[in-house]
Backbone:
């Protein structure tokens, strides 16, 4: 059985229905979908998404990333992304292995195995696609294969995970991963700003203050932030606010005006305008539609 077929088989057995499955392997989860899904906003953590079957699309700002068995996706920072499965069926469901990326281990590996650095002034985008090499795929299949041998996970999973990180660092298109491994890189300066914005997105903030957190001038911060996130800092904050407001309305049944106030809006009309701009319809109608979709899926 070739590694891709093996990986698909393992994911299909350990993720028997649609959804996301945590596993006994630290940092690893499995995803399955038996039909295309509607675009939904999600927060991508630093992670590797390696598809065994099907195809998925992630939209960040104006950039669209499509990945499948031939191309993996790496998110190098925390990002508000709109994701959707675009190729899946009952016969051939979307199957994906997702692995959290340990920045400390990446840094240690980068010191041990240096390669020529890219001298570009701006950091890489926070999402990048890379070629799924046979070596990377083989390691991923062996990692997933430990789910069939749970007694071996504690001893062997850290070794195979380290191999996967090594393959990412040294494989083609590795610039974003190597920047993650550099504590003083511009990418990691932007990571500090993103962490602050995620913790304080309901508050008013001055761009100069966030630039100070990143250790950059205002103009340099704006250019570097947009290079990583495809959004301005204020657009990024708005995305965070909208995602949380949507969750409050759909999952907790909160009224639109209350949800808007909860995420930092003083004006219900401004909240509604921003919501329509991002999600394409007024907040109450969108929340009702999503609740109906969730109810239908449950039955």
Residues:
């Amino acid at each position: 059985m070739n590694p891709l077929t093996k990986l698909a088989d393992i994911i299909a057995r350990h993720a028997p229905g649609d959804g996301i499955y945590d596993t006994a392997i630290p940092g690893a989860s499995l995803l399955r979908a038996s039909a295309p899904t509607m675009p939904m906003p999600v927060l991508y953590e630093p992670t590797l998404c390696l598809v065994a079957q099907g195809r998925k699309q992630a939209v960040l700002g104006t950039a669209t990333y499509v990945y499948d068995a031939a191309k993996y996706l790496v998110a190098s920072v925390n990002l508000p992304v709109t994701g959707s499965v675009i190729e899946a069926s009952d016969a051939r469901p979307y199957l994906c292995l997702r692995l959290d990326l340990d920045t400390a281990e990446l840094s240690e590996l980068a010191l041990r195995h240096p390669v020529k650095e890219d001298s570009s002034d701006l950091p890489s985008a926070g999402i990048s696609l890379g070629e799924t090499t046979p070596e990377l795929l083989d390691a991923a299949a062996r990692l997933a294969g430990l789910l069939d041998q749970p007694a071996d996970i504690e001893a062997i999973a850290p070794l195979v995970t380290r191999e996967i990180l090594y393959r990412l660092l040294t494989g083609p298109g590795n610039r974003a991963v190597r920047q993650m491994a550099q504590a003083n890189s511009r990418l990691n300066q932007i990571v500090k700003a993103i962490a602050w914005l995620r913790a304080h997105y309901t508050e008013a903030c001055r761009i100069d203050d966030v630039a100070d957190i990143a250790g950059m001038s205002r103009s340099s911060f704006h250019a570097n932030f947009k290079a990583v996130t495809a959004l301005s800092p204020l657009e990024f904050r708005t995305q965070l606010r909208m995602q949380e407001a949507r969750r409050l309305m759909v999952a907790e049944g909160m009224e639109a005006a209350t949800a808007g106030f909860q995420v930092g809006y003083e004006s219900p009309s401004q909240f509604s305008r921003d919501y329509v701009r991002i999600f394409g319809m007024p907040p109450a109608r969108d929340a009702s539609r999503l609740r109906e979709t969730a109810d239908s899926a449950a039955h």
About this structure: The chain is about 50% helix and 20% strand. The CA atoms of residues 134 and 209 lie 45 Å apart. The chain has a mean pLDDT of 90. The first strand starts at residue 19 and ends at 22.
